[in-house]
Amino acid sequence: MAMEARLEAKLEKIENCEAYFEFVIDADEMERGLEQSYKKVVKDLKIQGFRKGTAPRSVVEANYGLEILLNEALDIVVPNKYYAAVEELQLQTSGEPDIEVGYVVKGEPVTVKVMVPLYPQVMPGNLEGLEVSVPQVPEVTDNDVERSLQETIRRNRKFIDKKKMPAAKGDQVTFDFEGKAGSNDFQGGKDEKVIIGKDSFIPGFEEQLIGAKKGDRLQIKIKFADNHPAPDLAGQTGVFDVRIKMVEEVQEMVLDEYFFNEVAHVGDINEFRTELKKKLSENADQRQEELVRRTVLKAAVEASEIQVPESMVMESATSTMQQFLQQLQAEGGNLELYAQMIGKSLDEVKRDFWLDAQLSVKIEYLLEKLVKDMGFDINEEEQRNGVFEFARQYNMDANDYEELKTKVGPMFERITLELKMHKATQYLVDHAKITMFDPRDMQSGTKHLN
After folding, report:
1. What is the pLDDT of residue 442?
2. Please, are residues 435 and 134 in contact by the beta-carbon 8 Å criterion?
3. Cα–chain center distance at 7
4. What is the pLDDT of residue 162?
5. Which of 53, 69, 270, 338 is the most buried (most CB within 10 A)?
């Protein structure tokens, strides 16, 4: 009589596209794992009375406890049992599992609990004729051109170290400071930069830097206004202990004949403004196209049934937020200050990152599904262009296509998929019913979807 097959895994639930299950490592399997672990671990152990690597297992456990063998034993036993359980339960996983091993008692079975994200479930809705309303990106104005011109000048100015020369109006001063107002200490700063006379720091502070030299320590006093927005500072005298780290002369970029001919490659200031306007208009067109695509894709997601694992969304949101934090920190800011600037709480900002990540993940898997179901494909030339564009963005130096494919490596398949997904996106845009509106027009009374 054939023996009935023993159930290896027990599915507890599938929730939010994540599977929760458990499996059992029986005592014999655990013992085999411990024995293999002992044979590996003992090689590095030196115990009194035995040559290195020769102590019996019983002596090893007596001296170090079973714990010294556990991690290695579990690394040997758990993976095979996990993959067998996934196959038995017929789960289509899409990420790394979260594994929790129960308490291990020698000679007894061990229960292992698992949570693993599943491949997103995508059921596309009716995606032809999506009705969307998209805000119109404003046309480039002469004021925009002038701001761009001034930014070009600012970005290209030079800073010349004045060594031990004193700071004067127009110089840039780099300093560290600590501050106190009354009995209250307030947050100091490191590597702060101000250009004397620009009034970009605390009113009354910059002019007191005039005459300071690199290495100087000075005390600056500021009387805060009675109606200062920070109650602890209102009406107080702030005392700043300042250490000067560098004084630099600022040389503004000159829009002269040399600049126009050799740098900008234009004839004069009017032609330079024309080129700036052309570039700004191209950027505006790109922003408009991206806004249309994003709006249509959001509508496509809302018209479909898509389930994605929360762990996948969390990973995406965390990664995006960390990159954003690095940008803020590079500019001397943090997430709390950013939240204050945009008038939101810290929890609201984090929630925004979560929602954006959730939408992005859903968009990706919806497009992947459309590529598969509708057969979107690319030709060899499109693939070559895509690979060369990827190489250009990441400064990969290669002229030969086959050599470049090797350098790109595993990203080659991803590049190919993204090119196909771009075609799927364009299909949705081409078949959508798009209405453009001016976001400044608040008199129409029309409800617009963003």
Report:
1. 52
2. yes
3. 42
4. 94
5. 69
In this structure, of 212-216, 236-240, 288-292, the range with the lowest mean pLDDT score is 236-240
SS3 170: coil
| E-state strands within 334-449 | 433-437
| Burial class of residue 4 in the structure, from the number of CB atoms within 10 Å of its CB (0-12 exposed, 13-18 middle, 19+ buried) | exposed
Partner residues linked to 237 by β-bridges: 223
pTM for the structure as a whole:
0.73
Q: Could you give the count of Cα atoms lying within 13 Å of 119 in the half-sphere of its Cβ?
A: 11
Alpha carbons 120 and 371: distance in angstroms, whole number: 15
CATH 1.10.3120.10 fits 269-437, yes or no: yes
Q: 242 phi and psi, to 5 degrees?
A: -120, 135
Instruction: Please state which CATH class domain 158-251 belongs to.
Output: alpha beta
Q: Where in the chain is the domain with CATH 1.10.3120.10?
A: 269-437
Question: 25 in the Ramachandran plot: left (φ > 0), alpha (ψ -120 to 50) or beta?
Answer: beta
How far apart, in whole angstroms, are the C-alpha atoms of residue 59 and residue 50? 10
Q: Fill in the amino acid letter for 419.
A: L
In this structure, what DSSP letter does residue 160 have? E
pLDDT tens profile 143-197: 999 999 998 888 888 999 999 899 999 999 999 998 888 777 777 788 889 999 9
**Which pLDDT score is estimated for 263?**
80
Average pLDDT over residues 1-18: 71
Of 309-318, 328-337, 413-422, the poorest mean pLDDT is in 328-337
The DSSP 8-state label assigned to residue 162 in this structure reads -
Q: Distance of alpha carbon 350 from its chain centroid, rounded?
A: 13
Neighbours of 54 (CB within 10 A): 13
| pLDDT: which is higher, 278 or 393 | 278
Tokens, residue 64: 């170090």
Listed in order, the ranges of the chain carrying CATH 3.10.50.40 are: 158-251
* Residue 152 burial class via C-beta count within 10 angstroms: exposed 0-12, middle 13-18, buried 19 and up: middle
Share of the chain above pLDDT 90, in %: 61
Q: Considering the chain, tell me which residue range(s) the CATH 3.30.70.1050 domain(s) occupy.
A: 9-118
Q: Decide the pairing of beta strands 433-437 and 121-123.
A: unpaired
pLDDT surpasses 90 at 402: no
